[in-house]
Amino acid sequence: MTTFRSLGLAEPLLRALDACGYDTPTPIQAQAIPAQLARRDVLGCAQTGTGKTAAFCLPILQHLSEGLPARNKRSPRPKIRALILTPTRELAAQIGDNLQSYGRHTPLSHHVIYGGVSQRRQVQALERGFDVLVACPGRLLDLHGQGYVDLSAVEHLILDEADRMLDMGFIHDVRRVLRLVPSKRQGLLFSATMPAAIVKLSREILNDPVMVEVTPQATTVEKIQQKVMIVPQADKKRLLRELIHTQDVERAIVFTRTKRGANRLVQQLERGGIEAVAIHGNKSQNARQRALDAFRDGRMAILVATDVASRGIDVDDISHVFNYDLPHEPESYVHRIGRTARAGREGIAIAFCDPDEVKNLRQIERLIGEAIEVDEDHEWHTALPQARRPAPTTQRRHARHSRGRR
Ligand code: AMP
User: Fold this and answer.
1) Which residue puts its alpha carbon closest to atom 15 of ligand 1?
2) Which end of the chain is less enclosed by CB atoms within 10 A, N or C?
């Protein structure tokens, strides 16, 4: 049996993993850790939830702590030797938390840098020095432009959720950051999907990489009960209120397409006596963190989110995912519903589809390779002209994507 010890991890990291309660490496960890410990570059195809963060953090911590004496006040100021680039603040904060847990028995320090908050504490930390920097590209370039960041000692460069960085338009910023780090370094790139642009980027930054791909757990999507309700846009808010009241909704994420839509929906739910909180890119970092904390520790059962803001949110026990608006990109649907049925539990994903959104529904069904069951019994069901109905469930095809977990 593969154990963390058999992967070659050192004692201080093994003790930390033990304290986290991890007994066995996940598939991505079992594949990526030995390659990285052997100083190879890695191209990893893996989504949130697979254990990819530990897969790239542990070898970095091991390399950086090798031969490093215990630190005291007279120790030289640490230099940034590992840079982890990530698309969102939430993801950056989560990686920071993981580094804290896994590195607790090493002398290493880290700091997390993102926009939307005052730069004062980030500048103070940069002046004190630390070993690992987790950063969103925009704020990093901003602070570099002001002369606060020195990346000349970077030995490990990690691009996390590279496809998301591309989607969010960060690719030029990423390229600018790449020019600031030494060309001789270990490179790691992790991405949930591998579109051509990511393959191209990986060729630019990785040297003869080991390819690591995890086959997502077959059970994940199968454990999600998917349904679609055909309902006019104007009736969606009432339908959502009704479902929250009548179904066993313990903890739900409701996805809207726009930030304004998310805010409006929270107000509408509150008017109906349902407490909810929105999380999206226009909220301050503090507000987003507060919302997420309330959702995670169960004080708030309903989180209304846009795709970008929800990315990387790692909360278990989500009983329902409501697709209040269908996403324009069918891949987002798989990301969204993958928020439920985590950790092997069952989950329910309900999509609200205005007759005008049927084309989006069809794209989703093509991607996942199966028709989503239409809830026709529900009184809200709007009769659709036959030609616009989603494909019947008997036409199931089996595409690889249908097993995807995001
Ligand atoms: P990630 O894919 O990095 O977002 O990790 C998903 C979740 O799995 C996080 O909550 C981790 O703390 C947890 N995790 C990572 N590795 C393991 C492991 N080997 N055993 C149990 N849990 C893990």
Assistant:
1) 51
2) N
d(CA 123, CA 102): 25
- pLDDT value of position 384: 53
How high is the pLDDT of residue 123? 98
Domains 11-213 and 224-394 share a fold: yes
Q: Which residue has the higher pLDDT, 342 or 234?
A: 234
Alpha carbon nearest to ligand 1 atom 11, residue: 51
User: Superfamily assignment of 11-213 in CATH?
Assistant: P-loop containing nucleotide triphosphate hydrolases (3.40.50.300)
Distance 22 CA to ligand 1 centre (A): 8
For residues 193, 196, 199, 200, the Cα torsion angle rounded to the nearest 10 degrees is: -150
* Cβ–ligand 1 contact at 49 (below 6 Å): yes
- Ordered by start, the domain boundaries in the chain are 11-213, 224-394
Q: Give CA–CA dist 147/125, Å, rounded.
A: 14
**96 CA distance to ligand 1 middle (Å):** 14
Pick the residue whose CA is nearest to atom 13 on ligand 1. Answer: 51
Contact 170, 115 (CB under 8 A): no
Is residue 66 scored above 50 in pLDDT? yes
CATH code for residues 224-394: 3.40.50.300
